[in-house]
Amino acid sequence: MKNITANRKVILLMLLTVFFTFSVQSVSHGFFWEIIGAIGEALGAIGEAIGGTVGAVGTVLGLIVDVVADTVVIAADATHLSIRIIATAVWDTGSVSNTFSFPDGGLLGAVVSNLIYLWDPHTGRLQGELAHDTLIRDVAVNPDGNLLASGSIDGTIQLWNPDIKTLKAILSGDTRGGILSVAFNPDGSLLASGSADGTIQLWNPHTETLRATISGHTNSAILSVVFSPDGSLLASGSVDGTIRLWDPYTRNLQTTTSAHIDSVLSMAFSPDGFLLASASADGTVGLWNPHTGQQQTKLDHQAPVLSIAFNPDGSMFASGSVDGTARLWDPETGKILATLGHESPVRSVTFSPDGSTLITGSENGKARQWQITIDLGSATTSTGTLKPEIPFTGPPASVNASTTKPLTETILHESIVTLTLSERNYERSIFAIRDAVTVSGIDGVTIPWHQPDRKNDTEITIELEFDGDFDTDATLTFTVSAGAIANYNGPAATVQIPVSAITESVVATTVAPLAETTLDESVVTLTLTGRNYVRSSFTIERAVTISGIDGVTVDDVDRISNTKVIVELEFNGDFDADTTLTFNVGAGAIAGYDGSALTAELPVTGEQESIVASTPVPLTEATLDESVITLTLDGAKFASSIFDIRDAVSVSGIDGVTIPWHQPDKKNDTQITIELEFRGNIDTDSTLTFIVDADAIENYKGPALTAEIPVT
Fold first, then answer.
1. Among 180, 185, 171, 178, CA closest to 141
2. pLDDT per residue over 251-273, tens digit each?
3. CB neighbours of residue 507 within 10 Å
4. Most CB contacts within 10 A, which of 86, 162, 387, 566?
5. In which element (H, E) is residue 61 found?
6. Continuous segment of H or E residues that includes residue 647
7. Which residues contact 346 (CB under 8 A, 6 or more apart)?
8. What's the rounded Cα separation, in Å, for the pair 23 and 78?
9. What is the pLDDT of residues 1-18, one digit of tens each?
10. Sequence-ordered list of residues with C-beta below 8 angstroms from that of 65, at least 6 positions apart, any chain
11. How far is CA 304 from the centre of its chain?
12. Considering only CA atoms, which of 216, 149, 215, 208 is closest in space to residue 179?
C-alpha cells in the first residue's frame, strides 16, 4: 500500500512540477513569493515519494530524477537560465550539515550527524562511509583530493585517505567545545581549524603536527575559517558577528570588520580573491573587500543564512537559508538570479569543480544535485557564465604595455609586464582574464598558468616565462580578448613591446697567465654575456668541458653569480710547446637557452723541463763522501711526497758512490739536496750523473731528466 501511495504521489507531483514550470522571463517578483511555499511543499512530497519507492532509508539512493519539464526553480533576473534537479540522496538518520565536492569532480560528499558519505555524482552509487564517534561540524578536502579533514565536537580533527576510505591520523584540537570549522590553504601545506574556545589552530597536514595557535576572537566561538585563493589571507568568522583577516604565515591580524549583528555562520572568497562573502544569522549576506575590510554591499535573505559558496569562475554565488531556499546571486549587481526550493532549512551549498552543478544539503536529510544550464541564443551550455552575447557598440578597447626597464633577451625570463586598459575595466574573475590574455611574437615566450595577476580594475601584471633563443631584435604582442574586459564584447585589444636580442658569448679569464707549471689547481672564470647561468652548480658542471691539452680536467665548478662561474682545473701530463685550452659551455648550463655550445679559449705557456746539479765547492775524490749536491728543477715541480722522490732519484758514473736510503731531502718545490756516500777509489778525473725519473716530478709524464757534475 505504501508503494502504491508513493507512486501516486510521484505521478501527482510530476503534474504539479509541469504546472509550476515557468520561463525565467515570465515570473514577477510578487508571484515568486506567493508560490515559493507551494514549490517547497511539492519538493517535500517528491522527496518522500522517492524515498518510499527506490531505496532503503538511511542510504545514498543516487536517484536520477528526469521528469519532463522538471524545472522547479523560479529565476528572478537571469535571462535564459535553466535549473533542474538531476539527483537526490536521502537519509533519515539526521540533517545534511555539509556537502562538498572533490577537486576532480569524481566524488561528492555529505555529512550526516557523525558520518561522512561519499558517492559518485554520475552513477549515484555510494563509494564509502567514514565515521566519527561524535557529531561532525565541518569537512574540507585538500587541493589534490587525496586528503580529507573532518572536525568534530569532541575537539579532534580526523585526517582520512578518501581513495582507500581509511583513517590516517587524529589531531587533538580544542577539547572544551569542539572543532567548528576546517579549511586547507590553496597548496595543501596548511590546515586551519576554528574552535569553540575562540582560537584558530594551524596544522601541517603532512607531518600531522600543530604549527601555531592564533588567539583573536576572545571567548567567541569561531564558526567559519577560509583561505584566500592565493593563500595570503585567512578569514575567520565568529559568533560575535566579526570577521578577522590574518596573515597565516606571520599570524598577524590584518583587519577586523564588524560584519554582522549576529553570528557569522559561513564565508567564501571569490575565485579571484577580490571579494569575501559572509553568511550570517542576522539574515543577510555581506560582500567585502578582504584587503581593506570595507563592505561592498549587503544582501537581504530575510532569514538566517547558513552556508555560502562561489562558483568556479566567480560569476555567481549560492546561499542556503533557514527559510528552506537556496539562492543564486550575481556578485556584481547583487541581484537574485534564481531561488531553489527545499522543504526544510538549507544547511549547505557547494558547486561542482566545473560549475555546472550545485549541491545542496537540507535539515531533513536530503542532498540534491541541481544542473545549471545557460541558453545563449540557440546554443545550450552547462557553464557558470551568465553573460549572453549582445551586439557590440562603442569604441574598441585599448591597452598599454609597460615594464620597469627595457626588455632584452637576457632578462626576458621572469620579467614582469603591466597591461593597462584605457577607459575600461578588467573582469573581476581572474580566471576569465587568464583565459583571455595571450602573448605571441617570440618563440619560447609563454604566460604561466597562474598568470596574469589582477592588480586593480584597470591593471594586470604578467610574469613571463622564456625558454628559447633569438639573435635579432623582436617584438612581443599581447592580446587581450573580450572575455577579459568587463561589459565588453568587441574586438580584442593588442599592444606590442620591443625586445632587444643579445648575442650570447662566454669569456675565460685568470688572475695570472697560465703556464704548464701553474696549470694544476689553477682557477678560470667563465663570464657569460647575453644570458644567465642556470641556478644549479651541479647542472653547470655537467655541461662544462675542456679540450686542447691532454691531462687537463675539471676538478670543480662553482656558480658565483648569474653570469659567472669559476672552474678549478686538474692537470696530470706534460707538454713542451705553447698551446691553447678550449672551454665548452653546453646549453644545459645556460638558463632558457637551447642553442649551440659557447666556447672560450685561453693560451697556456709550455715549459721545457730540465735539471741542474750544483755544489758549494768543486768535488774531489777526497771530499766526495758526505758531500751535498743540490738538484734544481726548471719548468716543473718535484712531487709532494719525499718517498716518491727517493724512489725515483739515482746516481751513476763512479763506482762506490751511492745515495743513502734517507736521501734526498726536499727543500722546496724545485730543489732537493743529496748527501752522498763514497766507498771506493778513483785515479782519473770522472763525472757523476744524477737521474731524476718522471715519478719524482709532479704532473710529468716525459723521459727522465739528467744532470752531470765533474769529480777530480
1. 185
2. 899 888 887 889 999 999 999 88
3. 14
4. 162
5. none
6. helix 642-648
7. 306, 307, 320, 321, 324, 325, 326, 360, 361, 362, 363
8. 10
9. 334 333 333 333 333 333
10. 46, 50, 85, 86, 87, 88
11. 38
12. 149
**Residue 694 DSSP label:** G
Cα 396 to Cα 410: distance, rounded to the nearest angstrom = 35
pLDDT at 19 over 60: no
- The answer to whether residue 559 scores a pLDDT higher than 70 is yes
| Gap between the Cα atoms of 91 and 324, Å rounded | 17
The upper half-sphere exposure of residue 43, i.e. CA atoms within 13 Å in the direction of its Cβ, equals 29
> Closest by alpha carbon to 231, among 244, 210, 247?
247
DSSP 519-586: -TT-EEEEEEESS-B-S-HHHHHHHEEEESSTTEEEEEEEE-SSSEEEEEEEE-----S-EEEEEEE-
Distance CA 141, CA 554 (A): 51
As given in the structure block, the three cell numbers for residue 29 are: 517578483
Query: pTM (2 decimals)?
Result: 0.49
Q: Which helix (H) or strand (E) holds 645?
A: helix 642-648
Phi, psi for 204 (deg, rounded to 5): -95, 110
How many other CB atoms are there within 10 angstroms of residue 513's CB atom?
A: 10
Contact 305, 264 (CB under 8 A): no
Local structure of 610: helix, strand or coil:
strand
The dihedrals phi and psi of 434, each to the nearest 5 degrees, come to -60, -30
The type of residue at 556 is: D
Nearest one of 301, 311, 309 to 374, comparing CA atoms: 311
Closest CA to 651 of 629, 671, 667: 629
Does the pLDDT value for residue 72 go beyond 80? Answer: no
Q: Write down all domains in the chain, each with its CATH number in brackets.
A: 398-500 (2.60.40.1220), 505-605 (2.60.40.1220), 610-711 (2.60.40.1220)
Q: Are 47 and 366 in contact (CB under 8 A)?
A: yes
Spatial neighbors of 19 by CB under 8 A, at least 6 apart, are none
CA distances from 584 to 189, 467, 544 (A): 42, 21, 6
Q: Measured in whole angstroms, how far is the alpha carbon of residue 26 from the centre of its chain?
A: 48
**What's residue 219's pLDDT?**
75
The residues pairing with 236 across neighbouring beta strands, listed in sequence order, are 225, 244
Query: Left (φ > 0), alpha (ψ -120 to 50) or beta: where does 379 sit?
Result: beta
174: CB partners within 8 A, 6+ apart: 155, 193, 195, 196, 197, 199, 201
Give the Cα separation of 316 and 327 in Å (integer). 10
pLDDT tens-digit map of 639-650: 889 999 999 999
Q: Are 110 and 138 in contact (CB under 8 A)?
A: no
Determine whether 212 is exposed, middle or buried from the number of CB atoms within 10 Å of its CB (0-12, 13-18, 19+): middle
DSSP H or E run through 631: strand 628-634
What is the enclosing helix (H) or strand (E) of 9?
Answer: helix 2-19
Question: DSSP states of 471-515 as a string?
Answer: SS-EEEEEEE-GGGBTT--SPPEEEEEEEE----EEEEE-SS-EE
The answer to whether the beta carbons of residues 484 and 432 sit under 8 Å apart is yes
Triad 288, 292, 298: Cα angle to 5°: 20
Residue written as grid cell 574573475? 429
CA angle (561 as vertex; 555, 567 as ends), nearest 5:
15
